[in-house]
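Now for one record:
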Amino acid sequence: MTVLDSKVPEGPIEKKWTKHKNEINLVNPANKRNIDIIVVGTGLAGGSSAATLAELGYNVKTFCFQDSPRRAHSIAAQGGINASKNYQGDGDSDYRLFYDTVKGGDYRSREGNVYRLAEVSSNIIDQCVAQGVPFAREYGGLLDNRSFGGVLVSRTFYAKGQTGQQLLLGAYSAMNRQINRGKIQSFNRHEMMDLVLVDGKARGIIARDLVTGEIERHSAHAVVLASGGYGNVFYLSTNAMGSNVMAAWRAHKKGAFFANPCFTQIHPTCIPVSGDLQSKLTLMSESLRNDGRIWVPKHIKDAEAIREGKLKPTELSEEDRDYYLERRYPAFGNLVPRDVASRAAKERCDEGYGVNRTGQAVYLDFKAAIERYGKEKAFTSGHKNPGEEEIIKLGEEVVESKYGNLFEMYEKITDQNPYKTPMMIFPAVHYTMGGLWVDYNLMTTIPGCYATGEANFSDHGANRLGASALMQGLADGYFVLPYTIGDYLADDIRTGRISTDTEEFEKAEKEVKERVQKLFDAKGKNPVDYYHKKLGKIMWDKCGMSRNVKDLKEALEEIKELRDDFWANVRVTGKQGTKNAELEKAGRVADFLELGELFAKDALERNESCGGHFREEYQTEDGEALRDDENYRFVSAWEYVGNPRDAKLHKEELIFENIELKTRSYK
């Protein structure tokens, strides 16, 4: 077993990043013009990386499977982006953001990386404002903030309920400037099929043109993977349907260790599943928990009446409602972290208090917020004794200004007006904290192969706090990778252009074509979605919100059997050398069928509960996660050796010098 070196610099934590930047190697501007970098994925992490690297002078090639970088899944991030600017004057600081993030991740993240994230967070906001991102502003013109789960301050900057989209447009505009300069070559509708290693270093990729079906070779001095997470291993998730693990998994099979695959986040505010034919779930932003109160009926008979359609939630008195988060966690209330809120909702529904027809939903109610905002607006408008109708009208206007597009989206999907009746929500798979293992420089265990954003494991531990995904993606892309990649590329200034006419590229292309042909050769009877849905059910039932040793062992066997059946009986229609969406799905599901097994193995091996990894055998008397810091205070980094269940475990010990390890409490 190898003990991994994170390469976190020595010294006081607040000086580590500055010291590191001062000591690493640089590439001078004239030499950058002779160095090529491939960036796979053009969401916030990839787009910001590509734009900044090109601005510095490197020659960049970008690849995305969408028809435009603007369609990256980053646009789905609704609620906001964290930064420790302390505009509210409520006590925020770099240290406070660092502390909240480590605590929110249940003490399973690397201190050095998290502090750096907090340290550069303020720069992100300045960068995005300069790009024209229309953040919400207060009456006086300063940028506004709101709170998210797991914190006691307001540090989340937002653009209504479409923050991710606005930030992505900023990164995309920066990319377009470099495309216009000729510093970025953009390959849209291309999918990375494999990573190419030359003398043990990442030197390029094999990609498939998704329009023509052509298999292409692309070389570079370094490869950056910014391809997002693997939540779609569950089939039903809040991820875009095209989101996949192919780029990361190809790198894993070439030698990049995969870290903490079982650390997957369940988001508490998702629109509940509506039927067996559903292919995707829709998220309601965590920002709604700023003003929405979560509850279920206090009495089983009322819950049953609501499920049967005999009682409306608006007819239930305050005394008959259980605001269970406020009851169980008085200090944080409805703004507890996502893993805590999700498990609490599941517990209430499992006990029979769920409120939709399936019993798998709780209420998110804005009635109190509408009344509070209405009274405040009436008072500031000079109406000292407003009537109830006026209060509701004014309050709804305030709520609409803050969350209008989210309310509109909910009504379009459910055909219910959330201003008049509470939203129904239930937890769903949303984000993956696991990913490719990277060191402090964001390099994987393959020299020259980097991973940024959700594709790596580095910053969130066992649970991600809300509004921190955008922060990490842009921190990596704008302010970390452009520095650290130079330390590696400084040795390549005399290498010259990397040729694709080599044995390594020839072999990689041949393997890709053989794998594609193998999918067609099955000539089975079952479509790809048949296997994806079956895998998703296994993952949700046995590796989902709670896990136990029996279910995990069963999952390992069931996934292997399903994978064997997939390669024997899948039916891929169409042809290779043309546009073929079914072939695209087949390749992605094949990877999920391997990742799912590693996921279950990782969850089985980690005999503790922490963050989003909740083992039923390890919980406190009141049902909270029970960590084992003595035996599991490490990052699980898995080396591919053939079969996922035979993966070799490597450990990176987590050292806490600046934060005391203690039981996480939000009460």
Summary: Residues 388-414 form the longest helix (27 residues).
